[in-house]
Amino acid sequence: MQDYTTIVKNATSSIEEVIIGEEMLINMGPQHPSTHGVLNKVLKTDGEIIDEVFPQIGYLHRGLEKIAERLNYHQFIPYTDRIDYISAMNCNFAYALAIEKLAGIEVPKRADYIRVIMAELNRISSHLIFMGTMGLETGAFTPLLYGFREREEILDLFEMTCGQRLTYNYIRIGGVSADLPSGFIDKARSFCNLLEKRIKEYHNLLSYNRIFINRMANIGVLPQDLAIAYGVSGPNLRGSGVKWDLRKNEPYSVYPELEFDVPVGRGEVGTPGDSWDRYIVRMKEMEQSIRLIRQALDKIPDGEVRSKVPRLFKPPPGEVYVRAENPRGELGFYVVSDGSTNPYRLKIRAPSFSNLSAVPPISKGAMIADFVLLLGSFDIVLPEIDR
Amino acid sequence: MREQEIFERLKSELGDDGVEFYDDKLSPFIKVYPVHIQKAAHFLHEQQGLQFDSLMSLTCVDYPDKFIIVYHLFSMRHLHKITLKVDVSKDNASVLSVENIWESANWFEREVYDLFGLRFEGHSNLIRIMLPDDWEGHPLRKDYQYPATYHGVPAG
After folding, report:
1. Beta-strand (E) ranges in chain B?
2. Residue B107 sits in which domain range?
3. Distance (Å) from the C-alpha of residue B139 to the closest C-alpha of chain A?
4. Which chain B residues are Cβ-neighbours of A226 within 8 angstroms?
5. Tens digit of pLDDT for each residue in A333-356?
6. A95-130: buried (b, 16+ CB within 10 Å) or exposed (e) per residue?
7. CA dist., res. B6 & res. B23, Å (int)
8. Which residue of B has its CA nearest to A5?
């Protein structure tokens, strides 16, 4: 995080220039409806046109990586819930994958399927919030209520499974904490049927709404090479037309046994890689997640849901970098073990961190009102940027 | 391409005394000498058949006698990956920046500078990213002393 005075000093050659000249510095944040958290953007503007953006992050820095060094491997799982609280299951999942690879722990097949079901449900709920907030950004309030209505059903499913609605601590090292409760599979199936119909409604209401398209198309175009160079991942990268999904290209868990497509942005209504493309990729991903959940519900075998892992275990000295496809992109865990009960070093590579770093280069020349959309279409979550 | 082959190609470019290969079972890596990191990064990024266009992660580990900077590289085009490591001594904790090769390194290096206090030579904007400008010390170092207060507010 940088002091405001330092930013002013770097952005302008002299303070007179700010007062007399054409350019103006505007603080957008840290409290602002469009930030989805505590993020300050200092905009250097010429009238309504943005010349440069200086994102200031760090307001939510809690030192998760330092905390990890003081806890044993099991104890850190609740903290992974707080990396990205909107898709906590996926964060649990990625962390468990990393530690299992480091310590060579096998996971029962049934647990693998449960994990995929939970991860995909959480992906849907995360994208529903995205759809709602994207509506808000364009001035449409209704989609938010629609999105939260369906998300509620997913949270009910999570609550009956693990008792929690936001931070689950459900996917553990070696499996999951408890088996699916009775009635879960039927309820999940009927939810899939319901959501399938509702997604069509969302498309009619928002996606192909003329006003929405006119607001979203051609805004914040992210070219492919720039996206890759800045380490952009997930739906933002796919929105630029790169067919890249870790579930497909670097498959983990039971994803190879399930069929699904990877939607990419094609510039249907504007330029490839614009805000609308990033939006529609997420909407199409929800349909694919429904497909995945249905297959997993059909194929789920009986058996154990957790292999025996001692409370205090010592992985052999070594290190791994494991990444998984989160709703926001590539979540990576780099874990170094020195053979003791705690990690020697744990680095969290958060997708939103790199995604946000690509925002300044593409917002040059954008209008302030469009910048709200542009940033919203990246679907960043602040706790995972600041960690 | 396998890690061994990538290493052979890098060795032919930098010479025997520039790089070493460690065939660790879980995660094999190439150790690059600090002076060669720019050249190695440039070679891996540009060379036909290698083309590591994506820097997945850049971080640092604090060992008792040295810092090790870890680069996780990936090629979207050829779908292969490699880990590079650079030893940095504790007395003169600085290394060449790779920001001019992968733009994503800009924020990663700022984070390492902020939390470990390592300097990256040639970085365009090496300032703290997570912590306030007037914060003392670098928290992810193993010998970090927790402050009692920050601007009069208890910090423990």
Report:
1. 19-22, 29-32, 54-62, 66-74, 81-89, 94-96, 119-121, 149-150, 153-154
2. 3-154
3. 7
4. 103
5. 999 998 889 999 999 999 999 999
6. bbbbbbbbbebebbbbbbbbbbbbbbbbbbbbbbbb
7. 12
8. B133
Do residues B77 and B53 touch, judged by C-beta distance below 8 A?
yes
| Cα angle value A374/A376/A381 (rounded, 5°) | 130
Closest Cβ opposite residue A58 in set B61, B83, B131: B131
Please judge whether A334 and B107 are an interchain contact, meaning their C-beta atoms are less than 8 angstroms apart. no
In 3-state terms, what secondary structure has residue A165?
Answer: coil
- Interatomic CA distance for residues B40 and B12, integer angstroms: 11
Distance, in Å, from the CA atom of A265 to the CA atom of A281, rounded to the nearest integer, reads 6
Q: Among A58, A345, A357, select the one facing B61 at the smallest CB separation.
A: A345
Q: Which of B26, B99, B125, B131 to mutate to test the interface with A (most CBs of A within 10 A)?
A: B26
ipTM above threshold 0.85:
yes
**Partners of residue B62 in chain A, C-beta under 8 Å:** 345
With CA atoms as reference, the chain B residue closest to A333 would be B57
CATH code assigned at B92: 3.30.460.80
Which region holds residue B24: left if phi is over 0, alpha if psi is between -120 and 50, else beta?
Answer: beta
Domain A64-358 has CATH 1.10.645.10: yes
Cβ contacts of A242 on chain B, cutoff 8 Å? 76
Mean pLDDT, residues A261-284 taken together: 88
pTM of the model: 0.89
Angle at A114 between CA A324 and CA A184, to 5 degrees: 140
Domain limits, chain A? 64-358
Which residue of B103, B123, B125, B131 is the best one to mutate when testing the A interface, meaning the one whose CB has the most A CBs within 10 A? B103
The pLDDT confidence band at residue A42, using thresholds 50, 70 and 90, is confident
Which neighbouring-strand residues pair with A333? A322, A348
Query: Which residues of chain B from 22 to 81 reach within 8 Å of chain A, CB to CB?
Result: 24-27, 53-57, 59, 61-62, 70, 72, 76, 79
Domain count, chain B: 1
Which has the closest alpha carbon to A158: A178, A129, A133? A178
Distant-in-sequence, close-in-space partners of A5: CB < 8 Å, separation ≥ 6? none
